[in-house]
């Protein structure tokens, strides 16, 4: 059976023109899929939970080696997750001292360290803030952690230091917002000064949580300002879960692309707040629209945009959820690649609203799963990675091997 028949069903012979366009479509689809890679987070394999408690999984990773092992498995199954994001205090408690261990794990498991995530939310002294704490001494220690994170990243050959700042306040009048802006600008400038020529500082924003009155980097405008102030190698990181419910995220993305400030994404989905749900599970159309904006910017822009997953599943199996997420990302990326942008442009110019919208949503509704399957087959990857994961017995094996380390289930609500 020919490829075009797999994609579009059997056709009568003699439809040469259509076949030609089918093969052009296949080229386009394969090119799009070849250009898509996404980073997976080490914390996606560990036991995490809500503030009400954790439901522990026997197969969850509790060591760095187990996280690399799981990440390697996801990469083997999907072929598009060659890097693993690391969180400094969770994964690298000895800082640069852990670099040799990471190097060894990289070659053993076939994935390399990706973005380095400083952790400014765990130490007790950061109760009232880290880089924005009114205490100069605490701010200094927070900056020192940022500088250590840059060192770690350089040692591991990681391009991106990805900062999420948990700072903020809970009650009006209890903090001086303006002073905190100044401290933050200073801290990010100091961090930026330490970057190597190939490195970048990504600044993530979040409107609330853990603080509920104000957060010091609450939205993309604040993040863009801080990144521009920090220096030329700083960019904004968009976590899709960090927006108010009605916000038009693709418009934010368009602005960041336009101003050259888009550094990357943390992908996940949300219904109410920062829910960390599977990419595209609630609103796949939104991810499609974001991908469309990125693809409009052309291939060159892509190298400057880090695609990362930021999900940590408490109920779904961690391995399954990660593989499912990667596939969902590929499907939506491919759908966005099938928007006929050459045809769309004149429709937009003419303000032919219905035709433009039909073209756009037509691409969204197209079932691209057969194309993705074919791409996987051609690239020597499992056609159905979730099924292959299930057949492999990997999750059962790690559940037996790691289950003995299970702590008793506790709830601290
Ligand atoms: C915070 O909600 C966040 O999105 C940041 O990116 C953290 O690094 C990550 O989640 C894990 O806590
Ligand atoms: Mn995030």
Summarize it.
This protein is α/β, with parallel strands linked by helices and 413 residues long. The chain contains 17 helices and ten strands. 49% of the residues lie in helices and 10% in strands.
Total strands: the figure is 10
Mean pLDDT: 93
Radius of gyration: 22 Å
Shape: globular
What pattern of helices and strands is seen along the backbone?
Answer: HHEHEHHEHEEHEEHEHEHHEHHHHHH
Helix percent band:
40-55%
Structural class: alpha/beta
Strands in their spatial order, largest beta sheet: 4-6-8-9-10
Q: What does the largest sheet look like?
A: 5 strands, parallel
Approximately what portion of the residues adopt beta-strand conformation?
Answer: 5-15%
Bound molecules: alpha-D-psicofuranose, manganese (II) ion
Distance separating the two termini: 58 Å
Count the DSSP helices: 17
Low-confidence segments: 1-12, 409-413
């Amino acid at each position: 059976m020919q490829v075009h028949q797999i994609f579009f069903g059997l056709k009568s012979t003699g439809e040469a023109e259509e076949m030609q366009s089918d093969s052009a479509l296949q080229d386009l689809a394969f090119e799009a899929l070849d250009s898509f890679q996404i980073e997976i987070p080490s914390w996606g394999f560990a036991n995490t939970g809500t503030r009400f408690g954790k439901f522990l999984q026997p197969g969850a990773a509790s060591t760095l080696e187990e996280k690399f092992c799981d990440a390697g498995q996801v990469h083997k199954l999907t072929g598009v997750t060659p890097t693993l994001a690391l969180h400094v205090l969770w994964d690298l408690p000895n800082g640069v001292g852990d670099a040799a261990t990471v190097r060894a794990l990289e070659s053993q498991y076939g994935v390399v360290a990706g973005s380095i995530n400083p952790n400014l939310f765990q130490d007790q002294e950061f109760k009232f803030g880290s880089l924005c704490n009114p205490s100069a001494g605490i701010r200094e220690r927070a900056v020192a952690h940022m500088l250590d994170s840059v060192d770690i990243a350089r040692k591991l050959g990681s391009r991106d230091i990805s900062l999420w700042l948990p700072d903020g306040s809970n009650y009006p009048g209890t903090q001086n917002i303006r002073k905190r802006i100044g401290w933050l600008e200073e801290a990010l400038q100091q961090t930026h000064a330490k970057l190597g020529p190939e490195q970048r500082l990504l600044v993530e924003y979040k409107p609330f949580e853990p603080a509920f009155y104000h957060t010091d980097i609450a939205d993309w405008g604040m993040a863009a300002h801080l990144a521009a102030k920090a220096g030329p190698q700083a960019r904004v990181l968009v976590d899709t879960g960090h927006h108010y419910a009605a916000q038009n995220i693709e418009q934010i993305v368009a602005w960041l692309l336009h101003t050259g400030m888009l550094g990357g994404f943390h992908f996940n989905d949300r219904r109410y707040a920062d829910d960390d749900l599977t990419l595209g599970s609630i609103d796949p159309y939104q991810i499609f629209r974001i991908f469309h904006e990125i693809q409009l910017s052309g291939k060159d822009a892509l190298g400057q945009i880090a695609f990362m997953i930021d999900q940590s599943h408490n109920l779904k199996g961690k391995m399954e959820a990660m593989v499912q997420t990667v596939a969902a990302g590929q499907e939506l990326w491919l759908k966005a690649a099938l928007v006929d942008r050459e045809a769309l442009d004149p429709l937009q110019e003419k303000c032919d609203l219905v035709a433009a919208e039909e073209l756009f949503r037509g691409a969204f509704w197209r079932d691209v799963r057969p194309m993705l399957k074919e791409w996987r087959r051609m690239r020597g990857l499992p056609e159905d990675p979730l099924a292959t994961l299930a057949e492999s017995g990997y999750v059962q094996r790690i559940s037996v091997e790691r289950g003995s380390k299970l702590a008793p289930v506790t709830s601290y609500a």
